[in-house]
Amino acid sequence: MFFTKLSHRDYFNLSALYAVLNLLVPVFSTAVVSNVATSAIATPATEEPEFTDVIENITVAAGRNVKFACSVKNLGTYKVAWMHFEQSAILTVHNHVITRNPRISVTHDKHRTWFLHINNVEEADKGRYMCQINTVTAKTQFGYLRVVVPPNIDDSQSSTDVIVREGANETLTCKATGSPQPTVKWKRDDNSKITINRTLTVLEWEGESLELTKISRLDMGAYLCIASNGVPPTVSKRIKVSVDFPPMLWIPHQLVGAPLAYSVTLECFAEAHPSSLNYWTREDGHMIHESKKYHTENIIGNPAYKTHMRLTINNIQEADFGAYKCVAKNPRGETDGSIRLYTSSPPTTSPKPTTAESSSGRMNKDNIWSSADFNNSVYGNNPSSLTVHFPDKGSKYQSNLNEIDKSEQKSGSEVEGKGAIYQWGSVGGSSGGVSRFIVGWNLILFLYPLFR
Questions:
Q1: Cα(190)–Cα(218) distance, integer angstroms
Q2: Does one domain contain both 239 and 287?
Q3: Do the beta carbons of residue 184 and residue 195 sit within 8 Å?
Q4: Shared domain check, 423 and 305
Q5: Pairing label, strands 139-153, 58-61
Q6: What does DSSP assign to residue 156?
Q7: What mean pLDDT is predicted for residues 167-190?
Q8: In this predicted model, what pLDDT tens digit does every residue of 327-374 receive, in sequence order?
Q9: What is the pLDDT at residue 196?
Q10: How many domains does the chain divide into?
Q11: Is-contact 346 258, C-beta < 8 A?
Q12: What angle is formed at CA 98 by the lines to CA 62 and CA 121, rounded to 5 degrees?
């Protein structure tokens, strides 16, 4: 500490103060101090000095300069001293600075107002400051210095970026200092909800610790701990939480039919962290490489642990029919899914210049991730559909060819010439309804001449 320490409160009276001055200020000789004290006691004062105003309490931010003012009248030959009460430290006496703290100084306005200056205020400077006049019975008054300190996050005691296995528990900590003591709040960087446990999700959490129970991939992302105490600026720390898990695959269509000489696109959707190595193979394990025959692409989703895998097979030949596998590997494991490509008759509808959609609505890459039935598609519970590319027309159709056998396709082409509407995009039971309609129509056409 910079302040000169006193061991007894008695030093706050006048005689004790001058005894200390004899020791601490060499320029004051014993004779001078004694004469001053004797003069102060022996000479009758017509009017004793007194304070003319109170000392105002001050609140200041650390690092600023501050000034206390002590106003007196009728000072005469009496002296004014400044002291730090909590630290029992004499700071100044009259024009002299007693403490060895270089940040302390004293000035006055013709002996009427005495100013105590504290530069570059520190938190340790807080407390009561006493202005004292050395009358026989010392006169004192106090002013309080409140030092406020902006919040600061202690990195050495706070969490850094973490990697955790899916299903484990993780606790994030954020230690902050300041005066007054800061409050700490947690938010996700993308403003999504924080999952505390299975029954509690919040937008904001208060406390130095954030406990995440049975963490999942949905909890992956950046978390912000924000410390504030009303003293600007508010500070924050960004902590990235990565959740590792082995690859998982979703296959929307495990059976795909396509005609000879057409092009077809097979699709798989993968989730993995760290990012997986994704590729396609034939059923014999032979890896498929980019060529005129095959075009592969991996489309990174949002969040980034999702990947849309696509394999386009151009100019389909007999040798291209069979099983294809999409494979995903990362350090946590690997998995694969199978898609079988089989031959089908070409559609007889006239290609339109725009993309046609099935009656159930086209499944796009945004809603396919959130489809409630998507998990079941791995086990083949969902009807398969086909994206067919017509190389000669440049058009693309969404079709359920694999749900319609060849006889139904043939019947459909015959009826089409008679004005019936054939829906390529019907799914589930609707395709059966179309088939029954076609068979019934053909029967009427066959029996009509017999009863004419």
A1: 12
A2: no
A3: no
A4: no
A5: parallel
A6: G
A7: 96
A8: 999 999 999 999 999 999 888 765 444 333 333 333 444 444 544 333
A9: 92
A10: 4
A11: no
A12: 5
* H or E segment to which residue 342 belongs: strand 333-343
DSSP 190-226: T-PPEEEETTEEES-EESSEEEE-S--GGG-EEEEEE
Q: What is the pLDDT of residue 6?
A: 42
417-444 average pLDDT score: 38
Higher pLDDT, 78 or 45: 78
Q: For residue 59, count other CB atoms closer than 10 A to its CB.
A: 12
Predicted confidence band at 47 (pLDDT cuts at 50, 70, 90)?
confident
Q: Report helix angle 30-42 to 14-24, nearest 10.
A: 160
List, in order, residues 6 or more apart from 15 with CB less than 8 Å away. Answer: 37
Q: What is the CATH number of the domain that holds 76?
A: 2.60.40.10
Predicted pLDDT at 348: 78
Instruction: Give phi and psi for 337, each to the nearest 5.
Output: -135, 150
Task: Judge if 9 and 137 occupy the same domain.
Answer: yes
Q: Are residues 301 and 361 in the same domain?
A: yes
- Would the pLDDT of 170 be above 90? yes
In sequence order, the β-bridge partners of residue 298 are 309
Nearest to 421 by CA among 335, 349, 324: 349
| pLDDT tens, position by position, 400-428 | 333 333 333 333 333 333 332 223 333 33
Residues in a beta bridge with 209: 173
Same domain, 260 and 386: yes
- Alpha carbons 234 and 240: distance in angstroms, whole number: 20
State which residues form the domain around 315.
Answer: 251-397
Boundary of a domain, candidates 190, 219, 246: 246
Say if residues 249 and 372 touch (Cβ distance below 8 Å): no
